[in-house]
Write a structure and sequence with these properties.
With about 240 residues, the protein is an alpha+beta fold. Helix content is about 20%, strand content about 40%. It has one domain: Endonuclease/exonuclease/phosphatase (Deoxyribonuclease I, Chain A, 4-Layer Sandwich), CATH 3.60.10.10. The chain has helices at about 25-30, 55-65, 135-145, 150-155, 175-180, 225-230, and strands at about 1-10, 35-45, 65-75, 80-85, 90-100, 110-120, 120-130, 160-165, 185, 205-210, 215-220, 235-240. The protein starts with a strand and ends with a strand.
Length: about 240
């Protein structure tokens, strides 16, 4: 079975250059990627800047992705924002992993199982959506804590795991130091995704492990994607047998 996964910091649906709230641009950018599973960061819910939209449902309805999970991480005067998973496949066992480092912004990762149907059979795959901190020591602590999470520790080595998100890894060494020694493979070859209008940094990544094969990966560089957010959508296409 082949499917497409995208990790995308949608910047609350606010354009990285014009600073306008245009959620339809996010919808169109994701639709262009023909996405089956979307791991999203900076998703608003009930915030005035985004017309108090519940973006996890606004985007999910528009894309026809009926299975959804939302993780509110930062509480504002009105509303919250955080991470979300949209999926064409059922989501199970959705779990939060606390990644907050004292005196830093609240950060959590979202873990879930995704049930794929392959012919007459079903196969579980573990998903992890994260948005790591801005300081190097903070990201290291957060990723070590995530790798120690029960769901990841107790997942069989052959079970597919896809771990993705906004790593904020300016020097692009976090994966080599921590994820690759844990058996994860980089799917996206340090594709540059930030800033979207003229990307020079590879801040977003997709890693995978288990009985799953990478078909191809790319950052979407369409004109629409360069306008919709301050990050580009990062796509990885996989085959699960």
């Amino acid at each position: 079975m082949r499917f497409r996964l995208v990790t995308y910091n949608i910047h609350k649906g606010i354009g990285g250059v014009d600073r306008r709230y245009r959620p339809q641009r996010i919808v169109d950018a994701l639709a262009k990627c023909r996405v089956d599973v979307a791991l999203l960061q900076e998703v608003d819910d009930g915030v005035p800047r985004s017309h108090r939209d519940r973006q996890v449902d606004l985007l999910g309805d528009a894309l026809g992705l009926q299975h959804r999970a939302f993780q509110p991480n930062v509480k504002l005067t009105e509303g919250v924002y955080g991470n979300a998973i949209l999926s064409r496949f059922p989501l199970l066992d959705v779990t939060d992993v606390e990644l907050t480092v004292p005196l830093k912004k609240r950060r959590r990762a979202m873990l879930a199982h995704c049930r794929l149907r392959i012919g007459k059979h079903t196969r579980r795959m573990a998903l992890c959506n994260m948005h790591l901190g801005l300081a190097g020591f903070e990201r290291t602590l957060q990723l070590r804590r995530l790798l120690g999470a029960d769901m990841l520790q107790h997942t069989h080595r052959r079970t597919p795991i896809v771990l993705a998100g906004d790593f904020n890894d300016v020097y692009n060494n976090l994966g080599r130091r921590l994820l690759e020694p844990a058996g994860y493979h980089l799917a996206t070859r340090a594709a540059r995704t930030f800033p979207a209008v003229m990307p020079v940094r590879a801040l977003d990544h997709v890693y995978f492990r288990g009985k799953i094969r990478l078909v191809r990966s790319f950052a979407s560089h369409t004109l629409l994607a360069r306008q919709a957010s301050d990050h580009l959508p990062l796509v990885a296409e996989f085959d699960v047998r």
